[in-house]
Amino acid sequence: MLSAAVALAVLATTGPATADDPDRGPAADQTQTTEPGYGGDGRSHEPGLDPTPERPPTSEVSWLSFPGGVFAVDSLGHTVRYRACDGDTGRVADPNMRVAAGVASGAVVVGGTAYRYRVPLVGRSEGTLEVIPQHRPPTTLTGVVVTSPQPPTDPVAGARLFPLSGQLARVVADASLNPAGATVRDLSGRYGDQQIAVNGSLRPKAASVIKLWILVELLRRVDCGQVFLDDGVLVTPEDVVGGTGQLQFETFPQVVTLHRLAQYLIKYSDNVAANVLITYLGGFAPVNALIDSMNQRSTILARRMLDSAAAQRGEENYTSPDDVVSLLGAVWDGEILTPASRDLMIGFMREQTLNTKIPAALPPGVPVAHKTGDLPDASHDVGYYLIPGTETAVAFLTAGPMATGDETVRRMARTVYDFLVDPVDGAVEE
Predict the structure, then answer these.
(1) Nearest C-alpha neighbor of 59 from the set 183, 143, 146
(2) Beta 232-235 vs 87-88: how paired, if at all?
(3) Distance, first Cα to last Cα, the chain
(4) Among 96, 191, 204, 92, which residue's Cα sits nearest to residue 149?
C-alpha cells in the first residue's frame, strides 16, 4: 500500500475584422456580477477597509505547475490528472483523496506508475508531486499551485482595483442587446496581482478566441522537444476554408512550417491554420486535455473553424472571461509554457492585424497583444495591455449581435485603460 505523500506544501505570502464563422444563431447565458473582494465569504470588501481575510480562500480545483507539466486536482469530484511531457493519465478518480486544512493529498496508480501528491487548494502556494515508476527511482516535483482566480499577492494593493469592477458593471448593464462579461487581472504588482470580474463565468461561443488554446498546446509540445517550429506540414486544397486568414489565398498543396501556421493562427486569425493544426495535434482531444488539466470548466473545442454542419449538430466551441484570463495568466507567469514560448506567443499576439476593438478603443501607440473572436452572434477581444509598470490581462466577451458587441468590447476596453492610467473613485495611489 502506498504511504502518505512526501514533502509538505508551504503557503506563499499573500486585415478586416471578418467573422470567422458567419452562420451562427443566438447565444449565451448571462451570469451574476462578481462582487469585489477576496474573502469568498459573500461580503464586499470596499476600499478603505481591511480586505485581508482570516486565511487565504481555498478553491475546489487547483493545479500544480512544474517544469514540463501539470497535476490537476478536483477536491470536490475527488479526481486528479497528470499531464506532462512524458504522458497523460487522463482524469483519474481518487476516492481516498484526503482534503483537510485547505490541502488535498492522496495517491493513485496509473499504468504501473504511482503518483503521490500534496497540493494546497490555495493559489500561489507550493505543492509537491512524487512520481514513482515501476523499477525506476522516484521523481519529486515541486511547483506553484494555480487556482482560478489566483489570490492577490497584496490584498491591500488589490483593493485599489475594486472600483474598476463597478465601472465595468455599468458598461455591461448598458449593453442591452449583448450579454457581456469582463475579467481583468493585474500582472504588474501595481494592484497586488488582483483579479476582478463582471460576469466572469459568462459562456458565449468562443469564436476565434479558442485559437489561443490550440497555440498553447502546440507550444507546449515544442517545449517538450516533441515537435519543432521549423517542421513542415502538408496543407492540401481540401484544408482550405474561408473567413479570416491569409493561407486561403495561396496555392496548394504546399508544405507550411509550424512556425508560420502558429503565427498566422494569431496574426491573421487564420482559419486554415487553425484546422490544419487541430489535425496535426491529433484532433480535439489533446486541446481539450490541455483545457481540462488547467481546470478551465467553461471552455471546450468541439468543432473546426467554419464547420457549419458540426454547428448545426450542436457541436460548438465555448469559453468564458474567467477561463481566458486563467490561460493568459498562466502563460504570462510561465506556469504552462517556457519563457521562450511565452514570448513567442505574446509576440504573435502583438502582430494581430484585426484591430477594430481593443486597439481602436485606446490612444494610438498603446502597446497591446491581443486575440479577437467574431461571429454573427459573438464579439470578443482578449489579451494583454503592455503599458510598462501596469501590465494587465483582459478578456472582454459578448454574445448577441456582432456590431453592437464590437462597441461594447470597445467601451469595456477603454474603461480599463482609463482606470489604469488615471485611477479614480478611491483607487488613486499615494
Answers:
(1) 146
(2) unpaired
(3) 58
(4) 191
- 149 cis-preceded (ω within 30 degrees of 0): yes
Query: Per residue of the chain (430 residues), what is the pLDDT tens digit?
Result: 333 332 322 222 223 333 444 333 333 333 333 333 333 333 333 334 344 444 567 899 999 999 999 999 999 999 999 999 999 999 999 999 999 999 999 999 999 999 999 999 999 999 999 999 999 999 999 999 999 999 999 999 999 999 999 999 999 999 999 999 999 999 999 999 999 999 999 999 999 999 999 999 999 999 999 999 999 999 999 999 999 999 999 999 999 999 999 999 999 999 999 999 999 999 999 999 999 999 999 999 999 999 999 999 999 999 999 999 999 999 999 999 999 999 999 999 999 999 999 999 999 999 999 999 999 999 999 999 999 999 999 999 999 999 999 999 999 999 999 999 987 643 434 3
SS3 165: helix
Count of other CB atoms within 10 angstroms of residue 429: 8
Q: Is the pTM of this model over 0.90?
A: no
Q: What is the DSSP letter of 33?
A: P
Instruction: Please state, in angstroms and rounded to a whole number, the distance separating the CA atoms of residues 189 and 139.
Output: 33
